[in-house]
Design brief:
Elements (H helix, E strand, L loop, with lengths): L6 E3 L3 H16 L18 H12 L8 E5 L3 E8 L6 E8 H9 L14 H24 L4 H22 L17 H9 L6 H22 L5
């Protein structure tokens, strides 16, 4: 502990920054896209989500401004102390060099092993956020198929959506077909499980991963891996 602030462990810098984003986002911003969180039942947008959308439109957070990264002997330490509007957060995370470089070697965006700081419900929300961004960028790319940056953003967002759900799937017990309730420690994660329990079964998780992979494959089949 540093004062009354717990020191948390992230596997990678990507996971550390994502955790900061999620923690601040729990107040008023969608974790994966800085947009309003959408209701999940039948794709409907709830009244709470509309209120979130309005708040998000007013509050844009410069995460880099409030984050300090320092190097230690065996790990980086990230300190987030901000923002200057809305609820203020102080978050301390350590990222061991060992897990960061293991992730890079294995091309594991979020890290090897299972997360200690982001629960499976939050991972599903992150995956859905990336998927929304991919769909938005896909539509924008269709309007301007010469946009190389947009082309790569579609690919990255479908890939990240798939990988985020794969992170949730790491919480499945070896001998079970459903993630246990005890694996959901965040308010947002528990609420997601309560609203959509089928998404945390082995079948549901595999279905979401396959869906995001199919969407990625479909985009590449239309536009090719080396275009524009």
């Amino acid at each position: 502990m540093t004062g009354d602030v717990p020191i948390l462990r992230a596997r990678t810098l990507v996971e550390a920054y994502l955790y900061i984003n999620l923690t601040v986002a729990a107040d008023d911003v969608d974790p994966a896209d800085d947009e309003a969180a959408e209701g999940t039942a039948g794709g409907e947008v709830t009244e709470d989500a509309e209120a979130t959308r309005r708040r998000a439109a007013r509050r844009v957070i410069d995460y880099e401004r409030w984050t300090t990264l320092t190097e230690g002997r065996a790990a980086w330490t990230l300190l987030f102390d901000g923002p200057d509007t809305g609820p203020r957060h102080k978050i301390i995370l350590v990222v061991p060099y060992e897990t960061e470089f293991a992730a890079r070697r294995g091309e594991l965006r979020f890290g090897p092993g299972r997360s200690e700081i982001i629960d499976p419900g939050q991972w599903q929300l992150v995956g859905a956020g990336y998927a929304r961004r991919a769909m938005r960028d896909d539509l924008l790319y269709a309007e301007n198929p010469g946009d190389r940056q947009r082309f790569h953003e579609v690919i990255l967002n479908w890939t990240h959506a798939r990988d985020a759900v794969a992170e949730a799937a790491k919480f499945l017990p070896e001998d079970g077909d459903e993630i246990p309730e005890t694996a959901f420690w965040s308010e947002e994660g528990a609420a997601t499980r309560r609203d959509e329990p089928e998404r945390f079964t082995r079948e549901g998780l595999e279905s979401d991963i396959a869906l995001y992979q199919r969407n990625l494959d479909h985009f590449l089949s239309l536009h090719g891996p080396h275009t524009p």
